Amino acid sequence: MSAKAIGEAVSGAPSETATPLKTQLRRAERLKKLKYGALIAPLALFLLLTFLWPIGALLMRSIENPEVPEALPQTLRALAGWDRQALPGEDAYAALVADLTENKGSRTLAVAAKRMNMEEPGFRSLFMNTARKLPLEPGVDAREGLLEIDSQWGELGTWQLIARNGRAYTDYFLLAAVDLYRDGAGNIVQADPSASIFVDIFVRTFWMSLIVTVWCVVLGYPVAYLLATQSSRVSNLLMIFVLLPFWTSILVRVAAWIVLLQQGGLINMGLISLGIIDQPLQLVFNRIGVYIAMVHILLPFMILPLYSVMKGISPTYLRAAVSLGCPPFKSYWKVYFPMTIPGLAAGGLLVFIISMGYYITPALLGSPKEQMASYFVAFYTNETTNWGMAAALSAVLLLATLILYFVYNRLVGSATSGARPR
Amino acid sequence: MSQADPSATIATKAAPHVSFRGTQKTYDGEHLIVSDLNLDIRRGEFLTLLGPSGSGKTTCLMMLAGFETPTAGEIRLGDQVINKVPPHKRNIGMVFQNYALFPHMTVAENLRFPLAVRKLPAAEIDVKVKNVLEMVRLSEFSSRYPQQLSGGQQQRIALARALVFDPELVLMDEPLGALDKQLREHMQLEIKHIHQTLGVTVVFVTHDQGEALTMSDRIAVFDAGIIQQIDSPEALYERPANSFVASFIGENNALHGTVESIDGALCRVRLDCGAEVVARPGNVVGVGARTMLSVRPERAFLVSGSAPSVNLFSGEVKEVIYLGDHVRIRLDLAGSHDFTVKTPISQLDKSLQAGDNVQVAMDPAHISALDAVVESTAM
Predict the structure, then answer these.
(1) Is A421 close to B103, i.e. CB distance below 8 A?
(2) For B18-238, which CATH class?
(3) pLDDT in tens, B219-234
(4) Which residues in chain B touch residue A310, judged by CB atoms under 8 angstroms apart?
(5) CB-based contacts of B275: which residues, under 8 Å, 6+ apart?
(6) For the segment A127-140, what is each residue's pLDDT rounded down to a tens digit?
(7) Is A182 left (phi over 0), alpha (psi -120 to 50) or beta?
(8) Could you give all domains of chain A from N- to C-terminal order, each with its CATH number?
(9) Could you say which architecture CATH assigns to the domain B252-370?
(10) ipTM
């Protein structure tokens, strides 16, 4: 660099180097960010492909409704401007005959018939029978021909159902998942109480998760406190007992609980031989059994976050409270307990959210009255292959959990904003 | 006052505020961490417990606060034996090493805490909190959380919290340990001034002798569970009761020898190198006993020309260390290879350098003839 260039650089320093410096910083930061990005890219890609995309795809199933538009394109076109108040015109009948004739015996029609049968039992046979009897004799009027095959074609409801499913997306499954449906005119109405099951199931899922969480807090808090305050020899031993359930298969543990809790099981026999009870207690295949096993399985999820928070709380805080004149028990409540709230919140949220999705334990240890939302998701995917219903139930469960999370976060977050033990 | 009986009961003019009588503490049943403590704390004084770690000073404080129970002996607060009084009923304020401000409460809530526990009326609480915040000059921080304050501010709030409920006695357990040097020195003076204003009795624990000398009315020097000396800072420094105190507090030149005669306020000691020294007898047992002579570096002078006749030694300069306000001169003198003389920069002969031979004089009143337990020099 020549002396002149140096002189220029020095004289122009304040105004000229300000921007390049910022650019340089940004460039350096960008490189750093790229490096970090490269480090997490494999995991991010893996999560995208195996987690986010499948979940997204499954949730889409709850609103996708392609069956009827694929099978009856001409009919739907003819129904496009229909007011749904009176029977449609002649052209709709003719279009329907054309569609059914074209797709006769095809899979497309079978799937569409099955789809409509979900909403109105009897529609599968209506469609399949009608298609079998088509095409009509030449010269026969489409409307009269169809009415002759089945008088249902003369009913308003039949056409309303077709028209309702005429779009590629539907809210039918999501509404059904919360016991609602659209009537013939398209208004959302409450399902008949005898057919309403899902709201009860969600309430049950929430309630059972709440009970499990409360029990985990009640049982886990003292254990976490012991872990955090005992000498390392004692606390290491305790920690092994806490972690032991983690190292055992969930099925093995559930089977073990059945052995322990059943009518002729260890606990009942023990109590009877001690003379405490005469008749064996019903401890399994009911709600008690589900609670016992779920609390057992989820307890570590409560204890570990609590422990990590409690470990960071210096015993000096309690001494300080006592030295200020606060009796020991009150000191725990006023000083120690508020500092453990972040741990309690983390553990509680973890246990509650895991409980909400519990499937195996209620399925094996509960009666039908203990089945939670995920059981019905499994039922619709495995047994009736109703993907729409399974996806809708999952979506409602997910949404409910998210709402709960935000409410909870708001409450606990504001309560503990200042409570970060140093 | 400076008599060297470790377990001596120090007589006080008025009834003591706190007194330990034959107090002992052991954790394992084998070793006494505090052995036979007898200590009177005067009402309104600033007493510092000073000692190396493990000397029992913190245990004493914890026993006074009620967090540790004495295994023997009694502790009195006023005329009441408080051995069995639980800590929350003792009405003793305490400042902890890491402040222990409650992180989930604001500054004001922290200060209200001891008053609310005492069920004071809300209006009175407000006034007290306001006053104490003014005292520590942090009124505008009342709605902050402790972790939003600097270390020094947290320290002042911790102090305010320990004072707000007007306790009879305030205990401080190394409260300035976490602060940097400058802030620590500032806080030392601030605490001292607050003590002077309020007249509350303070028991302060530290291992920092500078802190102890700055702040205290009296200092109790602990070692091995025993009070080695309890005295005013000046007496402690100028007339250490034994060789431990002499080595622990301040800098110390140690000369080893044998006592030849004791004559009232003076004694003659024959050093191992053959020279004779006239000194002030400290806790030497008697004629013929081994002794360690202790001289502070600033109490030895380089002399030239008209020299006194007693305690005049000649030695060789090994090193001259410049320290801005003073110079340290390391000498080979009177059998010690590490004899240090501290000279103000204004009185220094600029031409002095290593290898020179110099004359050093010491006033007998500033040489203490002490026990010879500590044979190695502290410096």
Answers:
(1) yes
(2) alpha beta
(3) 988 888 888 888 888 8
(4) none
(5) B313, B334, B335
(6) 888 888 877 777 77
(7) beta
(8) 3-61 (no CATH), 67-166 (no CATH), 198-415 (1.10.3720.10)
(9) Beta Barrel (2.40)
(10) 0.78
